[in-house]
Amino acid sequence: MMDSLAWPATEGARGHSIAKGTSRDIRVANRFEIMRVVIARSPVSRQRIAAETGLSIATVATVVGELIAAGLLLEVGFEDSAGRPRALMAVDHAGGVLLGVDVAETYVRVDLFDAALAFLDGVEEALSPEENRPDQVVGHIVSGVRTVLGRAGTPAPRVLGAGITVPGQVDHRGGVSVFAPNWDWHDIAFGELLSARLGIPAHLDNPLRAAIVAELWFGAGRRREDVVVLNLGTGVGAGLAFRGTLYRGATNSAGEWGHTTLVLDGRPCHCGGCGCVEAYVGAPGIVQHLRELDPDSPMLHANDQTATIDALARGIDAGDPIAQKVVAETARYLGAAVANLINLLNPEAIVLSSWVATRLGEPLLAEVRAVVARHALGRPFVATEIARSTLPGDSVSLGAATLALEGFLSEIATNRAKG
Amino acid sequence: MMDSLAWPATEGARGHSIAKGTSRDIRVANRFEIMRVVIARSPVSRQRIAAETGLSIATVATVVGELIAAGLLLEVGFEDSAGRPRALMAVDHAGGVLLGVDVAETYVRVDLFDAALAFLDGVEEALSPEENRPDQVVGHIVSGVRTVLGRAGTPAPRVLGAGITVPGQVDHRGGVSVFAPNWDWHDIAFGELLSARLGIPAHLDNPLRAAIVAELWFGAGRRREDVVVLNLGTGVGAGLAFRGTLYRGATNSAGEWGHTTLVLDGRPCHCGGCGCVEAYVGAPGIVQHLRELDPDSPMLHANDQTATIDALARGIDAGDPIAQKVVAETARYLGAAVANLINLLNPEAIVLSSWVATRLGEPLLAEVRAVVARHALGRPFVATEIARSTLPGDSVSLGAATLALEGFLSEIATNRAKG
DNA sequence: GACCCATTTGTTAACCGTCGGCAATACTCC
DNA sequence: GGAGTATTGCCGACGGTTAACAAATGGGTC
Fold first, then answer.
1. What are the chain B neighbours of A169 within 8 Å (beta carbons)?
2. Of A79, B91, B331, B338, which has the maximum CB count within 10 A?
3. CATH code assigned to B23-91
4. Where in chain B is the domain with CATH 3.30.420.40?
């Protein structure tokens, strides 16, 4: 058994359920926070880090020292002051790389990032419908990882960790894909398979959670406590963060916002229910709006939702009335569903992410805001910012890599002893 | 200005939003946990407390020592063991009392509890529709408090604190009723008014939050992390707890589950929207189901929902088919709305509370379970226990008093120096 | 240009608080 | 009195902060 396993095989058998907080957790949280500030404000002085985090300068100095010792940070210069110049810290771009792997129904995407989560390189391998065995998927991941690491040049960079997202219910502590509905996987110890083949600390989770972590570190979630990210794609779902940290639910399946009922006894949904949010605002649902409005629309591309949504986006730009009606109809449902989240959870921000949100963009968002204003209660509504994600690239693989960084930061040894 | 104010008037002006955790918080959380164990398992040995909390015996001993010094706990006897007998701890019933005040639209309820949150006495004063000025409400609270404390006998007991719930959006830190829709209150510094007149540390909050705190301490929330309590009354709302603690949302208005849309463009709701959950499962909504099924039903009591719901409950017991249909119809909506919560939040338990849940009881719950099973996703569904609240009495005033106990426990000085 | 001082930054040590482990003590039973 | 268990006190490890101190620079003075 390799020691690169990120999940101790036997754990979690504690007698009680309450997460007892230890002082160690405080240090780890501070490391996260300081790393976030350095990434966002780079180059940045210790003084400024202290001001932004609220920590004392002494604590900042020790934590920064740890991060320098771990090879993540670097003093990159100095800044004038009235007295001694401030040293400026930045992420050491040679300090190591992180891998973010997004396993979806039709593709496996492997992205390489530096320790500041700046995108370096990426490959995407298509997944045919027959290739749904875990070992086949693992094969694609391994080949993708080899490709990007190979291209990264010599000497091979130090890999700090890999984050892998798999759809469905994932037990992130055990590295187990508990249930992946599309492939009918049950309790696949995916993480072990991967660690064994990669020799890299691997962190398995679900794409919704990766997306919210990416927003927390780099997007609308920065400096906020309660954030929801809505993944609008073929399926739809929500990533949730409460009090500044990821919320997973009791059994790692929180966030199935797509399968909450919006229209009782409404449109059938592929989950078997009726009137689910996903049936109206998922890509197939949007295509259905178009088909119902104009069955012969030239924007319709049979068997290719992506092309249809693209055509729709072009139609909006061109002022096509049918396209506009489709957007309005979609927003009628999406807005009500967003208002539900606002009323129930009173978040600070709701972020629209994934490819449908990207393509339909501002026109959809404007309509949604108007609908939300009608449905949501006044006070929570004004407290919530509704925005599109500003993250570049695939925010799922970015979030997966971020989870790997969090894992790495959690395991840095504290160095009091110096020498 | 009195020093019994529980809310420092100037606070919260920190530059950053992240709640920086201190080791002090750990101690406070452990005090809560140990107090909960003592209340639930009383009389209980230190050993058992350690086993149930997962803390070391040493830590349990120090915290128990603090609580004894604060007058909350007492050694009440010994338990045989093979060697030295275990000392048994219990709450000191003479250690102090807590007040729980539930301010509703039509009444002010003041309950007195001992430090173990056992009910001692209570009074309810009716609130006429004209009596909606803050000072009038305060007057009722003060008179109620004087009554129960007067009856408690001499010498007057030590009051550890008072928790007061007010409907609407409440800023618990500042003790301000930010917005109470029924009375059109805006930014009433209710807490200051009360502290000044009572001379008792007062803790203001919202009834939904009180209800979930009560469940966390004494009901289905014990030893659970993620719990939802549904308040089914004239209005409906949800109290939320994530990771073992109360969730308030960004601006203290999380939990408006009653105003999430379940039937797009459905029944009008008094909030101005349409198709809200409350319009179907709030008491008036249930009465409307009955009216639609049988406009001449003898169970209908004009202008008295409570009587109608009571008649409905009797009808169910008697096997009245109309009553059963009304329950089924109500469950059709309630079940779907509960399933939404399960899919979105994946909680460990959902607790049905308040007077409608009490009266319609098991028959409603059975129907709801069946509907939820159809609507919710399989895996989160089996992970969620759906139950009626087992708390006796008014769980809102109980929760309010519990909030006061939490406040008291947070402010116990740590005593290393002894003598 | 040499020197000194003010000023600010960064580091170190001391302190307090938390928890856990271990040994000494307390207590009862056999 | 000895065995066995409970409780307590003490110590170490770790966290953060405060305060004192060392380091680095600029500016003024001779």
1. 379
2. B338
3. 1.10.10.10
4. 97-211+398-410, 223-390
Q: Quickly list DSSP for A331-363.
A: HHHHHHHHHHHHHHH--SEEEEEHHHHHHHHHH
Residue A84 contacts strand C, CB under 7 A: yes
Average pLDDT of the segment spanning A395-405: 97
Q: What distance in Å separates the CA atoms of residue A343 and residue A382, rounded to the nearest whole number?
A: 11
Task: For A36-99, give the DSSP string.
Answer: HHHHHH-SEEHHHHHHHH---HHHHHHHHHHHHHTTSEEEEEEE--SSSPEEEEEE-TTS-EEE
> What's at B230, amino acid-wise?
L
Angle at CA of residue B96, ends B92 and B99, nearest 5°: 130
Task: Give start-end residues of each CATH 1.10.10.10 domain in chain A.
Answer: 24-91
Q: Is B54 exposed, middle or buried (0-12, 13-18, 19+ CB in 10 A)?
A: middle
Q: Where does the pLDDT of residue B9 fall: very low under 50, low under 70, confident under 90, or very high at 90 and above?
A: very low
Determine the Cα–Cα distance for residues B356 and B363; give it in Å rounded to an integer: 12
At A303, is the secondary structure helix, strand, or coil? coil
Partner residue opposite A223 with nearest CB, options B16, B29, B333: B16
Confidence of residue A129 (pLDDT cuts 50, 70, 90): confident
- Tokens 């639930």, located at residue: B40
Quote the pLDDT of residue A20. 53
The residues that bridge with A268 in the sheet, in sequence order, are: A274
**pLDDT (tens digit, 9 = 90+) per residue, A14-66?**
222 334 567 788 899 999 999 999 999 989 999 999 999 999 999 999 999 99
CB atoms within 10 A of CB B251: 18
Does B269 touch chain A if contact means CB atoms closer than 8 Å?
no
SS3 B276: strand
Task: Identify whether the C-beta of residue B17 lies closer than 8 Å to the C-beta of residue A223.
Answer: yes
Nearest CA distance, B197 vs chain A (angstrom): 30
The arrangement of secondary structure in A97-211+398-410, i.e. its CATH architecture, is: 2-Layer Sandwich (3.30)
CATH of the domain spanning A225-390: 3.30.420.40
Q: A33, A345, A382: best mutation site toward chain B, by most B Cβ within 10 Å?
A: A345
Cα A80–Cα A86–Cα A89 angle in degrees, nearest 5? 120
- pLDDT tens-digit profile of B346-398? 999 999 999 999 999 899 999 999 999 999 999 999 999 999 999 998 999 99
B22 lies within 8 A of chain A by CB = yes
Give the nucleotide at minimum CA-to-C1' distance from A415: D14
Domain A24-91, architecture per CATH: Orthogonal Bundle (1.10)
- What's the CA gap between B352 and B238, in Å, rounded? 9
Q: Give the least confident one: A181-195, A330-344, B271-285.
A: A181-195
Q: Where in chain A is the domain with CATH 3.30.420.40?
A: 97-211+398-410, 225-390
Which nucleotide is closest, CA of A53 to its C1'? D16
* Residues 27-86, chain B, CB closer than 7 Å to nucleic strand D: 45-47, 57-58, 61, 64-65, 81-86
Contact yes or no for A234/A251 (Cβ under 8 A): no
| B159 backbone φψ class: left, alpha, beta (φ>0; ψ -120 to 50) | beta
A398 in Cβ contact with A111 (< 8 Å):
yes
| Fold (topology level) of B223-390 | Nucleotidyltransferase; domain 5 (3.30.420)
Count CA atoms within 13 Å of residue B285 on its CB side. Answer: 28
